[in-house]
UniProtKB/TrEMBL annotation:
Protein name: Cephalosporin hydroxylase
Keyword Methyltransferase applies: yes
CC per GO annotation: plasma membrane
Molecular function terms, GO-annotated: methyltransferase activity
Pfam family of the protein (one): RMNT_CmcI
Source organism superkingdom: Bacteria
Keyword Methyltransferase among record annotations: yes
GO biological process: DIM/DIP cell wall layer assembly; lipid biosynthetic process; methylation
InterPro entries: RNMT_CmcI (IPR007072), SAM-dependent_MTases_sf (IPR029063)
Keywords: Methyltransferase, Transferase
Length: 250
């Protein structure tokens, strides 16, 4: 009897391997990112009615990771319009349907300046019931301490860093929140693609040589309990987060 699921997994792995050997797909993916960047392509999508500011490929990758890790706490820095917080909350809602959890699953979201219109929309959203919002800098010691207290009640913790994209800020965030990631889970450092493409918004203080990628690279060199998992880079090719999936292995 043919095991079609096992065959599917083998075929998928082989096609991903071949796709990453062939230079044409990665070249095309890069040209695509360069072409759509000036049009704020990541702003074209919503999740359950809220702007999510993520590439579709990255949304699917995050869903796969959440399914694999089954976190009971997701810590997100950077809220913007609230779409990602809603996405994470909805994924935890689905996880509860798929496999219950003794610990109530929740999202902690931190933003230094959550605009009143976005706050109102987020608080009115049905998925807000799992979300706790902290107002202030993600590197503020008082906020970090409160988040650590919440994290102490959880067993499977995932972290997503998507706020200020300067090297120093992301490096500081990793030092604070990286330690909360549980073994087998991830810290996702978002927008590492700035190292490749820069930032089309000229008013930002970050750019090539000063961005989430450079911060993650430095931090990884100092923390052997984490490795860079390229699985989702190689699977998607089109991503805002190349080299950003940091897997805790010990």
């Amino acid at each position: 009897m043919i095991d079609y699921e096992a065959q599917y997994i083998r075929d998928k792995a082989e096609n991903i391997r071949k796709m990453n050997i062939d230079t044409a797909p990665s070249h095309t993916a890069k040209k695509f990112m360069e072409a759509v960047g000036p049009y704020q392509y990541v702003n074209h999508y919503t999740w359950m009615g809220r702007p999510i500011i993520q590439l579709p490929q990255d949304i699917v990758a995050m869903q796969e990771v959440i399914m694999k890790v089954a976190p009971d706490l997701i810590i997100e820095t950077g809220i913007a319009h609230g779409g990602s917080a809603v996405f994470f909350s909805s994924m935890l809602e689905l996880l509860d349907i798929y496999a219950g959890c003794e610990i109530p699953r929740e999202v902690v979201a931190i933003d230094i300046e959550l605009r009143s219109q976005n706050r109102t929309a987020l608080e009115a959203h049905p998925m807000y019931k799992r979300i706790t919002v902290f107002d202030g800098s993600s590197t503020d010691s008082k906020i970090a301490e409160q988040v650590r207290e919440i994290a102490s009640r959880h067993r499977a913790i995932m972290v997503v860093l998507d706020s200020n994209h300067s090297h120093q800020h992301v490096y500081d965030e990793l030092n604070i929140y990286g330690q909360l990631v549980t073994v087998g889970s991830y810290a996702l450092v978002c927008d590492t693609c700035i190292e490749v493409f820069g930032d089309t918004r000229n008013d930002r203080p970050w750019g090539k040589g000063n961005n989430p990628y450079t911060a993650a690279k430095q931090w990884l060199s100092e923390h052997d309990e984490f490795v860079c998992d390229k699985t989702y880079d190689e699977q998607s090719l089109i991503t805002s987060n190349p080299g950003g999936w940091l897997l805790r292995v010990k």
